[in-house]
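dumping this here so i dont lose it again. seq + smiles for pyridoxal-5'-phosphate
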Amino acid sequence: MSAAPPPRLPSVDALLRDAALAPLLAQYGRSSTTAAVRHVLDGLRPQLRAGTLQAEQVQADTLATRVQQTLQRTCGARLQPVFNLTGTVLHTNLGRALLPQEVVDSVAQAMTSPMNLEYDLQDGGRGDRDDLVNDLICQLTGAEAATIVNNNAAAVLLTLSTLAVGREVVVSRGELVEIGGAFRIPDIMGQAGCRLVEVGTTNRTHARDYGHAISEQTALLMKVHTSNYAIQGFTHSVPDAQVAALAHQAQLPMVVDLGSGTLIDMQAWGLPHEVTVAQTIASGADVVTFSGDKLLGGPQAGIIVGRKDLIARIKRHPLKRALRVGKLTLAALEATLRLYQHPETLAQRLTTLRLFTRAASAMQAQAQTLAPILQAALGADWSVTPSPMSSQIGSGALPVDSLPSYGLVLRPNSKTASVAQLQERLRQLPRPVIGRAQDGALWLDLRCLEEAEQAAFTAPWAIQKQ
Ligand SMILES: *Cc1c(COP(=O)(O)O)cnc(C)c1O
């Protein structure tokens, strides 16, 4: 009498016929599901051979769970929503500005309907896509003309390529910034084919430094917003108006890379002071470049404003065609700028401004509500404490200013509780939660968790409690 053959794993076909896999087949289709089933079965074989797993222990429903995990990993979206509880509102790695729903609606329409992107509805002739936002931007900045490119790095590159190729650009040593993601002013100069002439020292630059640097070779004088750092102490820099006057005496243009570039006086909303695009134009700058998705609160874009003749030259440069924006960006930018036409409602409607101006009392109340929920889910290894904290604007805007905020501090109580492990656990939630590690604790700043999202935030915690 021979022994019965050892039990074997179910076949791929048998599994695909199993009721447990039916919903996966419906959702992901036959070929992806088949591949995932093979992958899961292949993963079990070494354990079976080693004898650490018996085939009869393998149930169809546990296999189905593994197949589902595999399918989620291979077919699920990589780009997914997270909770930004870092305290940095305009977080470059988390996508910077959030668009208001009414802006999203405009984008959706541009995605699903033909639009007059480059079509003049007056005479039926060919239009210019920049004209869709040109007047609006000029109204809001006092500039004569505007053109839009993919981001502010592109705006600087295009401006320098047009106005300074083969010639010299004078910049203060205190303003040779490097922005995250390897945007460095000296490198951009090289790419644009112009020569950087550094003047002054790291901490002090005077008007005479600019004066001495001007020669036959000079194309323009440039000022760069020191977005992500501040030089403090024994410092001196030359105001925009004075640099502009020096440039104009020598019949040269003055260009300002404003970086973030706000369209409003932020102090009117109780926020730290930041020079506006309009003030920069009014101080005599001939061309100003800034981002669409920083303080402006719109889509990723680079906005170039300034003198009509210079903007016209910039628009004719062949790089403009390569760097131009698509209709989705223009739809989002126009809809965002329209909100600025109604400043009284801006702080409710423009998401970034609403987040910047959230009342600390609202965040405090939220912290009180959320603390017991998180405490119950995390157990005795952690103490969850509502606490005042400070948020940053981010994205190279106002690096030294902070906004008084409120949130939760998650502090380990035991040797086995680790902040890094908790961060990892939070990243694995259905909607990952990103906080910031500081002083041996995990800080969750609630500024960017608006009331409308609170239920979505608490849902997985309530489940973990059981
Ligand atoms: C952010 C920034 C840039 C780059 O802008 P992007 O829109 O990110 O390309 C360039 N210059 C300054 C001063 C900045 O702050």
